Request: fold
Amino acid sequence: MPYAGDLTPQQAWELLASDESALLVDVRTDGEWRTIGVPDLTSLHDRTSFIEWVTPAGPNPSFLDQLAESGLEPGDERPVIFLCRSGGRSVAAAHAATAAGFGPSYNVLHGFEGDVGADGQRGHEGWQADGLPWRNL
Reply:
């Protein structure tokens, strides 16, 4: 199965809303979840997993095992939507998941808060900027 591709935050939300088997996997760090916030899918039966792609010690060697522990099985064709801060880590995670047989696997463009803008700040694009539900952890 090839990598499924990129989704805008709105498209990701719509897929999560329309497919009860779809899972959102936030691959940011624990520090990011706690200081910046997380997507809030409680209105959609909260199908979110939090699995760090990179830990403070480096790449997460248990990433695929933790993905399986979240209820996914290779080959089950359950949509998996990966999200990070700006879309870099999540696209890498989506490719790794695809190679391991999970998915279809998608990346959320611009992530949770997007790249740094001309003003030196994030938050001009991504999940938060698009007005999608989020909460503090």
In short: The CA atoms of residues 105 and 119 lie 33 Å apart. The first helix runs from residue 9 to 18. The mean pLDDT is 94.
